[in-house]
Design goal:
This protein has about 450 residues and is of the alpha+beta class. Helix content is about 50%, strand content about 15%. The protein contains nine helices and eleven strands. The protein has helices at about 1-10, 10-60, 145-180, 180-190, 210-255, 265-290, 305-325, 340-360, 415-425, and strands at about 85, 115-120, 120-130, 135-140, 305, 325-330, 335, 365-370, 375-380, 425-435, 440-450. The strands form three sheets. A five-stranded mixed β-sheet has the order 6-8-9-11-10, with helices on one face. Helix 7 (about 305-325) runs parallel beside helix 8 (about 340-360). The longest helix has about 50 residues, at about 10-60.
Length: about 450
């Protein structure tokens, strides 16, 4: 009951359906009761008219009672008619209906007109009439039969209403559901949007009552988009402005390294240069993240995954050689993707760079691509320690780094990958290269294949 009240208070659709259904039921109940009573009374009026017509027939045609049986009922008549006709003789009154051939024991003092009497324990409707030749006749019918006929007639008038009301309730529920379908579709559309999809909601196909809310939501989306764009622009501008002084510091450190200095000073200089290099890498990744979070132009041609792999490996080869990593592309299968080439390079480069940095010296990094169910599966796996299950959902957060890791980095690589894949509609899956020992990292990126023109 509490659930019903909660749904009634919270759901406009349910409240409207319930209110309309309740109104229809109340109106149908009142109309049915009025129709039943009217039909019941009308049937009784028709039966009284029948008694009058029988009496008028006897008066006009001067029919003798030989047309009727000894009990006053018409010969060969069905049981439902049961109309009794008898004379009210002067001073004669028959008692005991159980006597064979005895008519109804009606008192001769009954005035002309319609009467409801109880005769021998049974109610009768009796019409008394004085004929033109001075004789008095009584036309009677059992009220039980009359009521049964009237009730059946009244119920027949209710049958269309009893059939149509449930159908009407179903039609009302269906119409209300269809009226609210655009709102449900709008809710599903907004719920399925990615974080970066802040374009306005189409309002032409929506009801006029809902459009003000859609206009307000579109206004809010526009403000959110401006705020996010300002934030991205601030990050990009700050990173760009910091790049110049860091480059100058790096050049000054290189010149300082050429000067004669004690070993202790040279060691501190190397530490300074590593810090400057980490700062430059961080700025580069901040710029990449800002670009990944902003929409790029629609690609004009599909991108080859093998070409992207080759370009990324060429850029990262110095890091590979420094750690003696065995890296390569498995197989020769290629896939064409309808995405921006810069997005593809950003995704693959950050995944491969992350794999190289966390793979021990002399380890292995494998790249591959496959096609399955209309999607390309880009797989990057390494022989490093991997990411434990409890942390697999947290590694995509900006600046998040796994505890206990001694690798140099900013914690933005996987955040960039997540930002790009969310924007282009791709899916990321994280697992282990070796599922038995739970070691090694295996990241799969699922992207839709380019459709042939």
């Amino acid at each position: 009951m509490d659930g019903f009240k909660k749904r009634l208070n919270e759901s406009v659709q349910f409240k409207l359906s319930f209110s309309l259904s309740l109104a229809i039921l109340v109106i149908a109940l009142v109309a049915g009761l009025f129709s039943f009573v009217s039909a019941f009374d009308e049937a009784h009026e028709l039966q009284d008219d029948m008694l009058r017509q029988v009496a008028a027939l006897f008066d006009q045609q001067h029919l003798p009672l030989t047309h009727f049986g000894d009990d006053g009922r018409a010969k060969d008549s069905d049981e439902e008619s049961r109309v009794i006709v008898q004379y009210l003789a002067n001073g004669r009154k028959v008692t005991g209906k159980g006597e064979t051939g005895a008519p109804l024991p009606l008192p001769i003092t009954l005035p002309d007109g319609l009467h409801t009497l109880e005769v021998n324990g049974e109610p009768f409707r009796v019409l008394v009439k004085t004929t033109s030749n001075g004789e008095r006749i009584a036309v009677a019918q059992e009220t039980g039969v009359r009521d049964e006929i009237a009730r059946d007639s009244a119920l027949r008038t209710l049958m269309p209403l009893l059939i149509l009301v449930p159908i009407l309730l179903l039609i009302v529920a269906d119409l209300v559901r269809k009226m609210f379908r655009p709102i449900a579709s709008l809710s599903a559309e907004i719920d399925q949007r990615a974080e970066q999809e802040l374009h306005p909601i189409e309002e032409k196909h929506l009801p006029a009552e809902v459009r003000p809310f859609v206009v307000a939501i579109n206004s809010l989306l526009a403000r959110v988009e401006k705020a996010m764009e300002a934030q991205r622009r601030f990050v990009a501008d700050a990173a760009h402005e910091l790049r110049s002084p860091l480059t100058a510091l790096s050049l000054q450190a290189e010149r300082l390294a050429e000067a004669d200095m004690p070993d202790l000073a040279r060691e501190r200089l190397r530490t300074l240069r590593r810090g400057i290099e980490r700062g430059r890498n961080l700025l580069d990744q901040l710029l990449t993240l800002a670009k990944a979070q902003s929409a790029l132009d629609r690609p004009e041609s599909p991108v080859s995954v093998q070409d992207v792999y080759r370009r990324v490996l060429e850029d990262l080869m110095p890091l590979v050689e420094a750690k003696h990593i065995d890296i390569g592309v498995e197989g020769e299968q290629d896939a064409l993707l309808w995405v921006n080439e810069l997005d593809m390079i950003a995704v693959v480069k950050n995944l491969v760079d992350n794999a190289i940095r966390y793979t021990p010296t002399g380890g292995r990094v494998d790249l591959s691509v496959a096609e399955e169910e209309g999607r390309a599966i880009l797989r990057v796996q390494d022989s490093g320690p991997g990411i434990q299950v409890v942390e697999q959902d947290r590694v995509f957060a900006p600046f998040y780094r796994i505890l206990g890791s001694d690798q140099v980095g900013s914690g933005l690589g996987l955040s960039i990958v997540k930002a790009v894949t969310d924007r282009i509609g791709a899916e990321i899956q994280i697992g282990f290269s070796d599922e038995v020992t739970h070691s090694g990292l295996c990241i799969c990126v699922l992207m839709p294949l380019a459709k042939p023109l």
